[in-house]
Amino acid sequence: MVLPAVPVSQSPESKFREYLATRPKSQRLTRPQRELIQFIFAQHDHFDVNQLIRDLDRADLRISRPTVYRTLAKLVDAGLLRRIEVNSRTVYEHDYGYPQHEHLVCEVCGKMIEFQSETIQNAIREVCTSHFFQQSGHTLVVRGVCQECNRARSAKRRLDMI
Question: Model's pTM, two decimal places?
């Protein structure tokens, strides 16, 4: 399920440039950072650092590994990307210009399924209100086995019984 984009007033590049300017030690947007932002926001996929670096190489963008790591940390801090811990893997996804949503993660194949639930959103709001807690965001990851992997496991079990 592809979730609809949320209207935003600035491009990710402009928002990041603004973030850099407000740092205690003002920083400028470098060419590698700009190329990285454009590359990341040109598609909407969950990715880890190694996958991103492989994709950058395939796209013939030469951005150093340290620059990728530093820029990802800044993009998270700027509110443009969200970091999700899935088992021992750190995955990134768009946060800016994308609606609040949850994830189902298959423990067999690693597939991530995004979904929205008004019921979950309401429950979180209710819990926060009852504890006088002001939330700044949340990440919900439900682990399990996807439909395709369940089918494959069922077929294997049937074959094992023969």
Answer: 0.82
